[in-house]
Design goal:
With 488 residues, the chain is of the alpha+beta class. It is 27% helix and 29% strand. It has three domains: 4-104, no CATH class; 107-240, 3-Layer(aba) Sandwich (Protein Transport Mog1p, Chain A), CATH 3.40.1000.10; 264-488, Thrombin, subunit H (Beta Barrel), CATH 2.40.10.
């Protein structure tokens, strides 16, 4: 979401220089000159980071304004430092880190209105639920701390809608914080105790299109006022054609899962542990999966079952069974399978994985060489992001080999906290950096897995951190939920 390359560009072009950085007077023109040297997407991401960190309450745009300059000065003042308006290297690093933490929790994705197609950013990291409505769609956080209606109304003009909305909010007891009415859009913001509401509609064809967002907390991970600023900016850009960063799309639960999606960030020094061979050379490849429901639903990696003519699954001592591939998510490297079998055990998903936490990997690596009873390894969480700070992944030190793909990543209590997906290509990394990495492996976070299951309407169990199991007991639990997958 906020690539480090953007932070690097910011560092190189927004650094304060010479006496101007040391003086107490702001230098607006110099700050403006440096800002306009940045490419457009970097200017936008910088403002999104400033918003996420809590210092910028306007929609991002490509120009440098007095208001943005004051926001930067206020950020400097909050640190007890000179309000020059020219950022130092440390100030930028701290700002980017603070904003990136919030953005990773939000994990924005873009959704289109079900009938109008216009895009809007939504925070998928809040484990959103979605339902179709007569006017469009409703997405909400499970505890109703965040709710957003994405609506289209034909035959209604902006001015009429503004009057009706304002009257409805006032009559319901809302304190109106501000309101804006223009020829082609309106905005009304209000609150009532802890309850906050923000409504924005634009002219769209013969009617209006917009969103109505409410929230009840400024605590993490919601940060409602910051969140609504970014969402409003994304919608404003969609309706006006203004520049705005492009991000990965999401789909609604009622939409048919696509067979293929846009690939995620490039991982030039990474390889999938059990990536299938090119089609013309294909024989049989294998991987791992695990049960996520009592109805025989299995999760694995997309690349494990990609291009298979037949997928065979073997659980424990049961005979092999043919599996049906129900859904694929190429971007997150996830696949959903189903077999007609009652599982011996089902995974429990746990959220909130911590840096340094002990983890275990179970799978069927190198099945033509190693035992098909499974392989169990231990390690730790070594980073909470993947290559290029990809927030969808965690980095682990537990050894991974070809065939581990799609297997469970477990905490010490036996909960599933991720899906093993790939290992760093040591030879390629050595060629690029001159250093040979040891046990640098990655797993898809359980938040991405849970969203995938929610989208495909698969109920799953959740677990909580508990007492650590002995390694032998942990291995037994991992083995009970895991399956060997053969792609033919």
């Amino acid at each position: 979401m906020l690539p480090r390359i953007i932070a690097t560009v910011c560092l190189s072009l927004l650094l304060s220089t010479g006496a101007g950085a040391q003086g107490g007077d702001p230098n607006f023109r110099e700050a403006e000159r440096l800002f306009l040297k940045l490419d457009i997407e970097t200017r936008l991401f910088f403002q999104i980071a400033l918003t996420s960190a809590g210092y910028w309450t306007a929609v991002p745009n490509v120009n440098y304004s007095r208001r943005l300059h004051r926001a930067i000065q206020e950020y400097q003042t909050s640190r007890g430092e000179s309000a020059t308006g020219l950022l130092t290297e440390k100030q930028i690093r701290d700002l980017i880190d603070s904003g990136a933490t919030v953005l990773k929790d939000w994990r924005f994705r873009s959704i289109g209105h079900p009938t109008r197609g216009r895009l809007l950013w939504v925070p998928m990291g809040l484990n959103l639920l979605a339902e179709r409505t007569s006017a469009g769609a409703l997405v909400k956080e499970p505890k109703n701390r965040f709710k957003l209606s994405f609506n289209s109304y034909d035959g209604v003009d902006v001015r009429t809608a503004y009057g009706l909305t304002l009257n409805e909010m006032v009559s319901s007891g809302d304190n109106i914080l501000y309101k804006i009415l223009r020829d082609d859009f309106f905005v009304i913001a209000g609150n009532q105790g802890r309850y906050n509401r923000y409504v924005r509609y634009h002219t769209d064809g013969s009617g209006i299109l917009g969103f109505d967002m409410s929230w009840s907390t400024e605590e993490p991970p919601i940060y409602g006022n910051r969140l609504v600023t970014v969402i409003s900016g994304s919608f404003w850009a969609s309706m006006t054609g203004a520049p705005f960063p492009r991000i990965e799309p999401a789909r609604y639960p009622w939409e048919a899962p696509p067979v293929a999606q846009t690939p995620g960030p490039s991982t030039s020094a990474a390889t999938a542990p059990s990536a299938p061979a090119p089609k013309e050379e294909r024989g049989v490849s294998s991987g791992t999966g695990f049960f996520v429901s009592d109805k025989g639903h299995i999760v694995s990696n997309h690349h494990v079952v990609d291009s298979c003519t037949t997928v065979m699954v073997k659980a424990g001592q049961s005979p092999p069974r043919t599996a049906t591939v129900l859904a694929r998510d190429k971007a997150n490297d996830l696949a959903l399978l189903k077999v007609e079998q009652t599982p011996p055990a089902v995974a429990e998903l746990r959220f909130g994985l911590r840096l340094g936490e002990p983890v275990a990997v179970f799978g069927y690596p190198l099945s033509d060489v190693l035992a098909r009873t499974g392989n169990f390894t231990l390690g730790n969480v070594t980073a909470l992001a993947g290559l290029g700070d990809d927030a969808r992944h965690v980095q682990i030190s537990a050894p991974v080999q070809q065939g581990n793909s799609g297997g469970p990543l477990l905490d010490e209590a036996g909960n599933v906290v991720g899906v093993v997906t790939y290992k760093l290509n040591a030879l390629k990394s050595a060629a690029l950096s001159g250093d040979i990495p040891q046990n640098v492996n990655f797993a898809v976070k359980v938040t991405a897995l849970s969203n995938f299951l929610d989208v495909n309407q698969v109920s799953y169990r959740t677990g909580a951190a508990g007492a650590a199991l002995k390694p032998a007991d942990l291995a037994e639990k991992a083995q009970s939920i895991s399956v060997y997958i053969e792609c033919r």
